[in-house]
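User: Can you recover a sequence for this backbone? Please restate the input before giving your answer.

Assistant: Of course. Working from this structure:
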């Protein structure tokens, strides 16, 4: 328990302490840490405390902090915990706490490269059945490597940013010429994103067991997808304009260390994966027990369960670098849509409505095949802790605006 008035079982208690970047209306950006519905201005706090790394908090992104590596990340987290538990610092701390209603949240990370994976067996199978009904649901490589594609880092946006409905080429009638216009199959993808703090040298793969030396934190991520544009363009080189118009991430990045109690074994990988994806010990292949929710206009339409994911974050990182590709501070890689086996755990409308042939019900009596203008999509999630409390992921939300004329 902390002297600060946030019960241990509340969202964003001492077990979470996520980092973000914000400004008080019109002010300089500062790195902050969230507790309850308040944020602590770490730049001012660290300056007053003469913290040895005070300079990294007076920044417009988390990148300077992330670059310092896991030993410093842990020191800083211990320092932050001490601020909230040591009653003698109460006055200083209170002076630098602000209500979240009084700040503008900024994109927390200067995103370097962005890669999106496809790590849910259920999602990959569903997509295969929908897009390629005459072929096996999973492509032959799927259980041998974590499939991914490079997304567009420059269009990763912070939670709360409106998303303009994209226009593009689509081919609703395969016997006729393609047409151009606003997407009529705009979708969400509920995903978990991993933010890379420490870089790696060009030419040196990152082993499965070294993932914790590189992954700084975890965000929720909505990989907005225009299914009609995607379906027409994706063969043979994969997703392009159907995805690159916007990708939303939470404003708050939860340190990977916060999820230590949420580690779970992966589902059994059969056939056995190649050596570089195995790791040296089973505990290097951790999955995560993250319980997610997808809401449209406040109605919960799905509850994806991250623990069913086939590929682990460490395996994704190892695969991404096995050819010698280097990591940079700010790299972002996402899990791919999180879908469980049950229909109420699918992480996209493509699956929930089986490509628009069914509708999900909303609390106001309406339904959706795909997203309509004005819809607000919100992803939330948390991980249970042994004492009954929760680690809360930063939520990610976005409203659909109509296509430009
Ligand atoms: Mn995706």
């Amino acid at each position: 328990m902390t002297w600060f008035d946030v019960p241990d079982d509340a969202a964003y208690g001492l077990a979470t302490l996520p980092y973000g970047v914000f400004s008080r209306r019109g002010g300089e950006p500062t790195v902050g840490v969230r507790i309850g519905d308040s944020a602590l201005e770490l730049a001012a706090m660290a300056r007053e405390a003469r913290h040895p790394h005070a300079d990294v908090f007076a920044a417009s992104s988390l990148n300077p902090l992330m670059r310092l590596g896991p030993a410093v990340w842990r020191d800083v987290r211990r320092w932050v915990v001490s601020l909230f538990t040591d009653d003698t610092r109460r006055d200083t701390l209170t002076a630098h706490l602000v209500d979240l209603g009084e700040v503008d949240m900024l994109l927390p990370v200067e995103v370097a490269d962005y890669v999106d994976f496809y790590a849910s067996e259920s999602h990959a199978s569903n997509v295969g059945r929908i897009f390629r009904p005459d072929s096996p649901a999973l492509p032959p490589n799927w259980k041998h490597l974590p499939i991914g594609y490079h997304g567009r880092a420059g269009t990763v946006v912070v939670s709360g940013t409106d998303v303009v409905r994209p226009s593009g080429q689509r081919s609703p009638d395969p016997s006729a010429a393609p047409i151009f216009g606003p997407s009529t199959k705009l979708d969400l993808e509920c995903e978990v994103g991993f933010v890379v703090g420490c870089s790696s040298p060009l030419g040196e793969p990152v082993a499965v067991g070294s993932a914790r030396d590189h992954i700084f934190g975890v965000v929720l991520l909505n990989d907005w997808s225009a299914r009609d544009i995607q379906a027409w363009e994706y063969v043979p080189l994969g997703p392009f304009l159907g995805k690159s118009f916007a990708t939303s991430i939470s404003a708050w990045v939860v340190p990977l260390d916060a999820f230590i109690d949420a580690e779970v074994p992966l589902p059994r990988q059969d056939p056995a994966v190649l050596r570089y994806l195995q790791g040296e010990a089973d505990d290097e292949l951790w999955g995560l027990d993250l319980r997610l929710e997808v809401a449209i206009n406040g109605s919960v339409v799905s509850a994806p369960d991250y623990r069913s994911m086939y590929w682990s974050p460490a395996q994704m990182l190892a695969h991404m670098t096995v050819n010698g590709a280097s990591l940079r501070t700010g790299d972002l890689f996402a899990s791919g849509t999180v879908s469980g086996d049950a229909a109420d755990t699918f992480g996209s409308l493509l699956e929930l409505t089986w490509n628009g042939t069914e509708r999900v019900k909303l609390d106001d009596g309406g339904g959706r095949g795909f997203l309509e203008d004005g819809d607000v999509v919100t992803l939330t999630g948390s991980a249970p802790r042994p004492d009954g409390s929760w680690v809360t992921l930063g939520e990610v939300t976005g409203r659909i605006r109509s296509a430009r004329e």
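That completes the design. The CA atoms of residues 130 and 355 lie 7 Å apart.
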